[in-house]
Structure formats: structure tokens, C-alpha cells
Design brief:
Elements: H1 9-19, E1 67-72, H2 76-88, E2 92-99, H3 102-116, E3 125-127, H4 131-136, E4 142-145, H5 152-161, E5 165-168, H6 176-191, E6 195-198, H7 206-216, E7 223-232, H8 246-252, H9 258-261, H10 264-267, H11 270-280, E8 284-292, E9 304-311, E10 316-323, E11 330-337, E12 340-343, E13 348-351, E14 356-359, H12 362-368, H13 374-388, E15 392-393, H14 395-414, E16 418-419, H15 420-425
Parallel strand pairs: 1-2, 1-4, 2-3, 4-5, 5-6, 6-15, 7-10
Antiparallel strand pairs: 7-11, 8-9, 8-16, 9-10, 11-12, 12-13, 13-14
Length: 458
């Protein structure tokens, strides 16, 4: 007999929603000498050369047409991203800024003037929830989108509609509806030949890129499983200040509210989940998870998750993330194959006997390249595609990684095993129907509790 604590597959998504608001191969390769036997042509590639994209990573973007850029979201990541872009390429002018809060905007405006002699005119500065439209309409060629991720799908959609190249900070959605918007917009961006790069910076980090190439070449064999982690101390939070409305407090404290950030399994741990999907080319089909809230001070999120992802071919990935002070830390990825394994902590590939058969040569990389910062190199790649007139899209791949995080989150929130078909078809929409800096029904922002506390009576 089925117990009362069974949540139907049909009802679990509405339950969860109630808890919220409503190419070419690079010619440059730095490889170390390897211990053990060189396998070379004995490997069976996961993909053939030309079937996967490897970015060219010069120190700086190619010279070319002058480009005008706008920034939407003037917080810490936005200000950092615009600095990364200015370091990545010459001939870039910041002409428009947008944010919900004027103090954030003025901070970036001052930084650009004092540090880069880039004086954004007052008529190029916009405040409010519609500021993104005004920035994109300000005659720009490219836009940096770094608001809290719940807004990313709508902002990306508008940028592509207007034919503007976009940088999307990860994650690029927080719910199923946002994911579907991203995937549809991605197709439109490709059709228009736009350049779209996302903030999954490890795709432009030299040791990760070379490891990706070696795995595609078959050095670890067929993939059999893996483990990914982002375990760290508590992230930042904002104590509510006098005069802040409910909405203002939540946005200023956004990394602690699931409708704004997607919870930290999506907002932060997406990096590690994305690495496994990128390196292996595999697609998750279901997730079973646990999670809880132990020490988080503000918001309505969990502070730990542990997820078992199952993939198309039956292999499993263990995913773990935690944001609690006083616990062990680990931010890394590990992939096991039939011939060996790769570990991002050491940037090594070992055979089944434990011999190192490939290792990223950091010293050789530094001798060949001055620029090692992946946050800069992702913008180098973005500008290169724009100036060369080459369409490029990373939003589809990052969209899939983002939804995998959402699937793991929902599995933990509900206590149910969630399938990919479930999560892609869900009507889950975390964006409030009314966006204004006023009061909110805070009773709807509660910490998720999985399962049913009632015990079946015998």
C-alpha cells in the first residue's frame, strides 16, 4: 500500500514553485612530458577532431573595428566583467550602464572614469527594472549581462532580438521556464550569427582546455563516472537596512534567495556540473538528491546538497556542494574512464595503475603566454568572434548545465527522483509577476522541506 508521504510526480513541481516566487582545434598546445607509456594512436577518441570546439587563447583579442559595450548589472561581478573585457581587447568603449540601484551604477561609473578614463555619459546611465532595454537600445554592439540570474533569460532574449552580441554570466536561468527561453533564444542567436559567451570560464582556462582535448582524444578511454565538488565556507549576505523594502533587501542579498539565484547548487556549483558535461559530452537523465539548511543566516535556500546524477548510458556522477563555515573545503572535478582518470586538483591524467601519463605544464604555459586569467580569456574569445565575423554560441551548452543543477535542486527540495523530461516540461517559473521595489508576500519564501512528515497509520 502506498504511504501518505508519497508526492505525486504531477504535483511536485507546483509544490516546489510555491516555495519560490512563482570548431576548430587550437594550434597551440602546452603538454608536459609524461611518465608511463605514450598511448597516442592506440586511443579511441570520444569525438573526432573538428567535432568539438577548442578556443584559440591568445593573450589579447585581435585588432579590429571599435566596439561599444553596455553593462547590465553593476554589482561585483558586473564591474569585474567589464574590467576583464577592457583588459582583453583594445578599442572597447563603455557607453551604457544599467542597474536597479543607482548607487551600484554610480560605483561602476566612477571606477571606469578613474581607472580607465572611460567616462560614461549621464544619458547612457539607466536605473530600474527596465534599464536592460535602455542599455541594449543605446546603440551598443555588445552587452554584458550580470544581474541576478533569474533575469538572464529575458535580458538575453531582448539582446538577441536587437542583434546585440552578449556575454551571459552563469547561471543563465533558475527555473524550467527560463531554461526554455534560453534554448529558444540560443537558436535565434545562431541564426543571426551573433557571438554569445557565458561565464563558465573554465572553458577558457588553459589547463582545463588541454585536459578537455586529451579526454576527447581518448586518453582516459570511455567515461565510467565521476565526482564534482564545490564545498566552501559561508558565502556573503546582506543584513536588512532601515528603509529597504522587501524587494530591495532580497535583490541586494540575492545569493541567499532561491528565486533570484536558483540556490547555490545552480548559482555556484553549476561550474562543476558543467565541467563533467563538457568533458564527457554526456547528458543527465535523472537525479536523486538530499540537501538541507543548517547555518545559512538570510534567505530561503539550503546550504548543502548531495546529488546522484544518472546519465544516458547508465553511468553515475556524484555531485556535492556546501557553504558552511568550519567544514572541509574542496572545489574540484574528477572523471574516471576505462583507461584512466583525470583530476582537476592536480591537472593530471593517470592510467589505471596510477602512473601520470599527462600533466599540464604550467611553466611552459607561462613561458608561451602572458595572459593566464580565464576571466580575461573568455572575453578575448568573445571579441575575437565578433571582430572576425564568426558566429559563436555557448548559451545552449550552459543552459543544459544550468538545468542539470535545477534538476538536482528539485530532487533535494522534494525528495523525489526527478527526470530530465520532468524538469524540461515543468511550468516552474520563479520570476514574480510584479517587479517593483516594494513589499512582497514574504510568507511564500520558505525553506523547502522534502517528503511528508505524516507517518502511515497501520
Amino acid at each position: 500500500m502506498m504511504g501518505k508521504n508519497k508526492i505525486s510526480r504531477r504535483s511536485f513541481f507546483s509544490y516546489s514553485a510555491m516555495l519560490g516566487a512563482s570548431g576548430m582545434i587550437s594550434s597551440s598546445s602546452i603538454l608536459s612530458s609524461c611518465t608511463g607509456k605514450e598511448r597516442g594512436s592506440a586511443n579511441t577518441p570520444l569525438k573526432q577532431p573538428g567535432e568539438y570546439y577548442v578556443p584559440e587563447l591568445p593573450d589579447k583579442a585581435v585588432e579590429g573595428k571599435a566596439l561599444k559595450v553596455g553593462l547590465v548589472g553593476c554589482g561585483g561581478r558586473g564591474s569585474g566583467a567589464v574590467e576583464n573585457l577592457l583588459e582583453a581587447a583594445d578599442g572597447i568603449t563603455v557607453v551604457a550602464l544599467g542597474d536597479v540601484f543607482s548607487d551600484r551604477l554610480e560605483s561602476v561609473k566612477k571606477m571606469l572614469a578613474e581607472k580607465y578614463d572611460q567616462k560614461v555619459p549621464d544619458e547612457g546611465c539607466f536605473v530600474g527594472f527596465d534599464a536592460y532595454q535602455k542599455v541594449i537600445d543605446a546603440g551598443i554592439d555588445m552587452v554584458i549581462l550580470t544581474t541576478p540570474p533569474v533575469f538572464r533569460p529575458a535580458h538575453f532574449q531582448y539582446a538577441v532580438e536587437k542583434g546585440v552580441h552578449a556575454f551571459l554570466e552563469k547561471p543563465i536561468a533558475v527555473d524550467s521556464k527560463g531554461y526554455r527561453t534560453i534554448m529558444a533564444t540560443s537558436k535565434q542567436a545562431v541564426a543571426k550569427g551573433l557571438s554569445v559567451v557565458t561565464g563558465t570560464q573554465r572553458h577558457h582556462q588553459r589547463p582545463y582546455v588541454e585536459a578537455f582535448q586529451k579526454i576527447q582524444e581518448g586518453l582516459i578511454g570511455e567515461i565510467t563516472g565521476g565526482n564534482v565538488y564545490w564545498n566552501q565556507g559561508m558565502l556573503w549576505y546582506r543584513t536588512r537596512q532601515q528603509g529597504w523594502s522587501d524587494m530591495e533587501w532580497m535583490i541586494r542579498d540575492w545569493v541567499n534567495w532561491k528565486w533570484l539565484s536558483g540556490d547555490h547548487i545552480v548559482e555556484q556549483h553549476v561550474h562543476n556540473i558543467d565541467i563533467f558535461l563538457w568533458m564527457t559530452g554526456l547528458h543527465p537523465v535523472k537525479a536523486t538528491a538530499v540537501g538541507s539548511r543548517q547555518r545559512r543566516i538570510t534567505g530561503d535556500q539550503y546550504d548543502n546538497f548531495s546529488v546522484d546524477f544518472e546519465f544516458e548510458n547508465g553511468i553515475h556522477l556524484h555531485s556535492m556542494c556546501r557553504q558552511i563555515d568550519g567544514c572541509s573545503t574542496n572545489v574540484s572535478e574528477f572523471i574516471q574512464g576505462t583507461k584512466g582518470s583525470w583530476n582537476s586538483e592536480t591537472h593530471e591524467i593517470k592510467d589505471l595503475a596510477g602512473n601520470v601519463i599527462w600533466k599540464f605544464d604550467e611553466e611552459a604555459s607561462k613561458a608561451q603566454f602572458k595572459q593566464q586569467n580565464p576571466y580575461v580569456l573568455e572575453h578575448v574569445d568573445w571579441v575575437n568572434h565578433i571582430r572576425k565575423g564568426e558566429g559563436h554560441d555557448e548559451s545552449e551548452e550552459t543552459g543544459i548545465s544550468t538545468l542539470a543543477g535545477v534538476m538536482g535542486r528539485e530532487a533535494a527540495y522534494t525528495g523525489q527522483t526527478i527526470t530530465w523530461d520532468d524538469i524540461t516540461a515543468s511550468e516552474m517559473d520563479y520570476l514574480p509577476k510584479k517587479l517593483e521595489l516594494g513589499s512582497m508576500d514574504m510568507s511564500t519564501y520558505t525553506v523547502p522541506v522534502p517528503g511528508n512528515a505524516e507517518m502511515e497509520k497501520k
